[in-house]
Amino acid sequence: MPPAAAPPGIVESVLAGGPAHDVLAEGASLRLDASPVDYVLVAIYFVFVLGIGLLARQRVSSSIDFFLSGRSLPAWVTGLAFISANLGAVEIMGMSANGAQYGMPTMHYYWIGAIPAMLFLGVVMMPFYYGSKVRSVPEFMRRRFGTGAHLVNALSFAIAQVLIAGVNLYLLGSIVNVLLGWPLWVSIIVAAAIVLSYITLGGLSAAIYNEVLQFFVIVAALLPLTLVGLHRVGGWSGLTDKVSGLKDGSQEIHSWPGNELSGFSNNFLSVIGIVFGLGFVLSFGYWTTNFVEVQRALATHSISAARRTPIIGAFPKMFIPLIVVIPGMVSALIVPQIAEYKATGKGDVKYNDALLYLMKDILPNGLLGVALAGLLAAFMAGMAANISAFNTVFSFDLWQQYVKKDRPDGYYLNVGRWATVGATVVAVFTAFIAGNFSNIMDYLQTLFSFFNAPLFATFIVGMFWKRMTATAGWVGLVFGTLSAIFIFILSETGVINLSGQGSSFLAAGVAFVVDVVLSVVVSLVTAPKPDAELVGLVYSETPKSLLNDPDADSLPWYQRPVLLAGIGLVLVIILNIVIG
């Protein structure tokens, strides 16, 4: 992270709770002079968002309609929503910040830290999720390991979602406050009201169809920014030449070995840290067990469509860094404030401000309105994804399971709507936690090392080893999480000194190993479930007929998950070789 003595950036000032007038004074140079046409474009976007919510409401007649879109959506829709749900404030702002700070090694978050896990989810894990007819990932945990692991997973997931949703909501309010001059409280209330409106009206269908719209709006916003930015620095060759001339620039134009990103000075250890910590534990832990993503696949109409959802999403995901990371790199060259901070570690901005300053410096009116709509779309997509996943887990896995059982379906539908309201209110307050992180990707990776890394260990062992017991399920989760928190404390107190996001990679690796070891040890001294109860939950006990649709063999080649995944894997290997 940048030196602690450096003054906070604009985003961090707001997240830290500074008075609005102080933030405006500090960010005066960043104020955008939006024209009426820019406001019209943003207003049109909001009209479409609310209109989708109203249309989706007509399809909501049961809790499954509200929480899982009646399991009726096509794979191309859920595939785009799968990616858009991940393109929130943390993704857009965090990855552009990483691009400005680390350069090309940021590509690892996509080509190592996303694509392989997404393909694995589609090929291996989605048949179990969808075939078991569970309504959430924690519900799968309950069927496999019982209520102990289920309660731990459901609670930790719910906490993580309001934490991350808070970042999306509060960043949205703070950026609108700085860029357009709206009062901070007005920005937050308007953003919260819009997201609340369409999710409460149309449930997951409204969220998913808005995420499809938001995907195209985000691309329409970031693509011109990337092209104009590259033109300013002399194209791709100009970018690499200028970055090479920076201090440590030679490490920023190649993704490997990524020493600054991993925090390891040794090249071999850096590669191991990125591949194991990010590429395996953090990545697989996030993409294969995070209900925010899995929920989109569960909304499809068949096992094959559910399997294709993350695989379809993997193809645009490969190219997202070209319009997110590269603008961050460009900003470090042509935005004076970012360039000064990168060279000296001093200044009144930080890397999280890179994309905002670039928008201010190079976009004319009209394109500025599209860019603003794109940022708003990104923040709302991320928040809506977190909230829609939270209300499902809260309603089914916590309220129905442990508070009020056997109530009519309409009762849980209303619980879900009230949970949406409650989560949004709580999310406003949770964002203040992120103010302690100068790069919000540090915050995100820390959360993932706490919650996702041990969860993935429990899942992967339990899915492929039938001997794993219910006791081992919750013991592994609890102590895996505690071990990640312990590493975080050691890092914060200076006992472990890793720069970049190396401490998160280490915490994730330790959590994974601790979870696996304890799961094995505890399983060997406790009684497992009978084999008959593991059908549909454990690979060796599940007939292949339950993992495929009856017409799977007659599907055309472009609808066959394994073939599509193979093509995706080849493409991402090529990208790693050509650009890495």
TrEMBL record:
GO CC annotation terms, alphabetical: plasma membrane
Gene Ontology molecular function: D-glucose:sodium symporter activity
Subcellular localization: Membrane
Pfam families to which the protein is assigned, alphabetical: SSF
Membrane topology recorded in Swiss-Prot or TrEMBL: Multi-pass membrane protein
CDD domains: SLC5sbd_u2
Entry keywords, A to Z: Membrane, Transmembrane, Transmembrane helix
InterPro entries: Na/Glc_symporter_sf, Na/solute_symporter
Membrane-crossing residue ranges in chain numbering: 39-56, 76-97, 109-130, 151-172, 184-208, 215-234, 268-287, 318-339, 367-394, 415-437, 443-465, 472-491, 503-525, 562-579
Record-linked PANTHER family: SODIUM_GLUCOSE COTRANSPORTER 4, SOLUTE CARRIER FAMILY 5
Family membership noted in the UniProt record: Belongs to the sodium:solute symporter (SSF) (TC 2.A.21) family.
Name used for this protein in its record: Na+/galactose cotransporter
Lineage: Bacteria, Bacillati, Actinomycetota, Actinomycetes, Mycobacteriales
